[in-house]
Amino acid sequence: MKRANAITGVVLAIVAILSLVVIIPWQIETGPQGMMSPRLVPQIMMGCILLLSVLLFVTNLGPDETGAPQPFSQAELRALALIGGIFALSIVLYYLIGPLAFGVTLVAGSLIGLGERRPLVIVAMPLVLMLMLWALFYKVLGTAIL
């Protein structure tokens, strides 16, 4: 049960952070001068949800009873950090180089990070996926991706 609570806390924290950083600023306009911003109440609520979800995560990190294993093993936390790093690198490459570098890095990096060692699969999967996306958007739909 502690593992489920910890995962729920992480998911709720991610949703709250995305809401605070992306959704609320993009969807709710700032109010006129001299008036309280319409963003205030949603931001306060998301801040409360963020604090409570972090509290839920932190309180459920320990084992259920004495002698029980931790809810997350070191290998799971390392894999989470590795996949998160691959996503971060892919996003940086998207902004620096373009969508092709993003897609190839995301797919090939995830394959390597998850343990794939066959070179043909590591090369072929991003290549086939990118070619299929190109054919879909440019040839079938007749529109550009960007």
UniProtKB/TrEMBL annotation:
UniProt entry keywords in alphabetical sequence: Membrane, Transmembrane, Transmembrane helix
Transmembrane segments: 6-28, 40-59, 79-108, 120-141
Pfam families found in the cross-reference section: TctB
DUF1468 domain span: 8-142
InterPro entries: DUF1468
Protein name from the UniProt record: DUF1468 domain-containing protein
Species of provenance: Pseudooceanicola pacificus
